[in-house]
Amino acid sequence: MRKNNSRAIGHQYERHLRLELIELGWENCQTSRYASREHDDANVDFVHTDPFNIQAKRWKSAPSYHEVLKSMPDDSNYNVIFHKRPSKGEVVVMDKLTFYALVEKLRFNKII
User: How far apart are CA 52 and CA 80, in angstroms?
Assistant: First the structure.
């Protein structure tokens, strides 16, 4: 029973994030469970969120971020993890090279 409850909580978190991503401008965002088995199998939880591949985690403990990022596609999108812990809040995690690439884009576009 616990595993099914954890799974339902994770799916609820994905649906919540999908609505937030739509508000941020990814109007065609869908969960990969709904829209793309290929993305779901590649550990990407949302489609139509370019230039990001997003994996959502709703765990009480911190996942192995390094392992999760390593399991995600090696393509032109930036791999990020959204992680929510009960009573601890939410974080977005990416590797350092991804962060540096985003900073370079901001600098190139004279945002910073």
Answer: 7
Judge whether 26 and 54 are in contact, CB under 8 Å.
no
**CB 93 within 8 Å of CB 65:** yes
- Residue-range definition of the domain harbouring residue 89: 2-108
Instruction: Give the closest residue to 84 by CA, choosing from 4, 12, 34.
Output: 12
Query: Mean pLDDT, 10 residues at a time, over the chain (112 residues)?
Result: 72 94 96 79 90 92 90 95 92 96 95 93
Q: What is the CATH number of the domain that holds 103?
A: 3.40.1350
Count how many domains the chain has.
1
